[in-house]
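#struct-help
A.M.: can someone run this one for me? Single chain, 340 residues.
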Amino acid sequence: MIDVLVAGGGPAGLAAALHATAAGFETVVLEPRTGPVDKACGEGVMPSGVGALAALGVGPTPGRPLRGIRYLREHHHAEALFDPGPGRGIRRTDLHAALLRRAAAAGIEPVVGRVTDVEQDPEGVTAGGFRARWLIAADGLHSPVRRALGLDLPPGPRTARRFGQRRHYRTAPWSDFVEVYWSPAGEAYVTPVADDLVGVAVLSSRRQGYDDHLAGFPALRARLGGEPATAVRGAGPLRQGARTRVAGRVLLVGDAAGYVDALTGEGIALGLASARAAVACLAAGRPEAYERHWRALTRRHRLLTTALVGVAGSPAAARLLVPTAAALPGVFTAAVRALQ
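D.P.: on it. Structure tokens below:
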């Protein structure tokens, strides 16, 4: 019997495996895909995420430093600087490759496999052909482990189903901020990820193609010019709930633990933080404490992101958001720094 089985070899899963190995646990990572895996995400890592990567021994990474976040709508803009230290714009594939290299250096080689069924007893968990004392589920937004355990929490009847799409453009970044363009239909996020490449993600509750979404941001589209450098990748519905993060000998981390929205760009940072918290609770012999720790470390994110998604869903409120943020720069900066 191994100590920890990690379902999912993305950033949160590899971080959990690195922390578990450092804590002296015999650890195996199960991941159905090989090599660096791409994903439809905004690719901006908050300063806390940069610090978490450094603590794992990952870095410096490719990409571009990010000084802060800028909101834009029509003739208004508001911006807030990160403090302390910059964030990082980095291709998802580059981030995953860096984590895979660090994992290999620590003796962790993901095994090709998938966890779909979980059996538990007082001594351990049987899943994916392995027997382990603990299972950490880091298997993504639509977690098969969460579903198999009956932990999916259905959205409320008034919850908007929002979706994300992303592709890259071969152009020199014109800013060292993550720029968020607002429109009545949704938001577009521009993240510099290399000296000649920007990622553009669009989020909306409207089900339509990427080009149709981008047409709602004419100023941004004019800046991009040229042909896209990558294909469109999509994800959603974004909001996913979990009844609990601890179910017997199974702990949920990263997106599998529950997700509000990509609007505030904290997915990577929260995934890394939840992985560290879960392993710390196992190492302390108090796995049941992870639920409380998860709620504490995600509370600000959940409250502020839920509020912003509510604003985005109201055309009248969304129209006032950027002008209000520009008029109250201290409030906007405080909100950004609360999330970083």
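A.M.: thanks! The first helix runs from residue 11 to 22.
D.P.: also worth noting: The two ends are 39 Å apart (CA to CA).
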